[in-house]
Amino acid sequence: MRHAPATAETATPVCRRLALPHSTAAVPLARALIRSLLAGSGAQADRDTAELLTAELVANAVEHTTGDAPIELVVELLPTGCQVEVHDPDPVPPGGLSLPAPDREPDPWQEHGRGLLLIRALSAACGHRPTTQGKAVWFTLPTTPAAVPVIPSPRTPPAGS
After folding, report:
1. Which residues contact 54 (CB under 8 A, 6 or more apart)?
2. Is the confidence at residue 4, as pLDDT, over 50?
3. Measured CA distances, 60 to 4, 73, 82, 117, 131 (Å)
4. Using CB atoms within 10 A as the burial measure, which of 25, 26, 47, 108 is most buried?
5. Could you give the CA distance from residue 112 to residue 59 in angstroms, rounded to a whole number?
6. pLDDT at 84
7. What are phi and psi for residue 141, nearest 5 degrees?
8. How far apart (Å, rounded) are the C-alpha atoms in residues 94 and 82?
9. Contact at 8 Å (CB) between 4 and 15?
10. 91 Cβ partners below 8 Å, 6+ apart?
């Protein structure tokens, strides 16, 4: 018996969770996980953008929360794209994620301060929600169209040839 191929309506979402250390070592681990998940799944989300935004969320969780409790990375591959969440133990919402902070423009000369701006600008949606152990900060990326090969059109011979 043959089954119909999976479509956007019938594909089963894939969800992966990974506990990360509360240290800067978490950032390359998170980048590697998102890269391998998207490459291995055939998902059509923008892999470079997913990797960049995941690194920003994890770096913010490490930098702006205290303690040594692990940070959890949750990646859900959906038929419509992907959603990435970073869970941390601090219940305080990230300032400026949903809307830019009115009194704070990123200083172009500073190394920090643009992560949430990148997440707002490059994701389809982003936000945060409280959890029983703190908060989850998330973003979604839509699927990107599959690359279509460009086939050159046949040349029409010039008139009178």
Report:
1. 30, 31, 33, 34, 73, 75, 84, 86
2. no
3. 43, 13, 20, 12, 17
4. 26
5. 11
6. 96
7. -125, 135
8. 21
9. no
10. 130, 134, 135
HEC string for the chain: CCCCCCCCCCCCCEEEEEEECCCCCHHHHHHHHHHHHHHHHCCCECHHHHHHHHHHHHHHHHHHCCCCCCEEEEEEEECCEEEEEEEECCCCCCCCCCCCCCCCCCCCCCCCCCHHHHHHHHCCEEEEEEECCEEEEEEEEEECCCCCCCCCCCCCCCCCC
Instruction: Report the alpha-carbon distance of residue 87 to residue 57 in Å, rounded.
Output: 9
Judged against a pLDDT cut of 70, whether residue 145 lies above it is answered with no
Q: Name residue, tokens 């409790």.
A: 69
One-letter amino acid of 3: H
d(CA 82, CA 33): 13
Other beta carbons within 10 Å of 125: 12
Q: pLDDT tens digits for 34-67?
A: 999 888 776 667 889 999 999 999 999 999 898 8
User: Which has the closest alpha carbon to 26: 108, 117, 87, 115?
Assistant: 87
More confident residue, 40 or 136: 136
Quote the distance between the C-alpha of residue 35 and its chain's center: 10
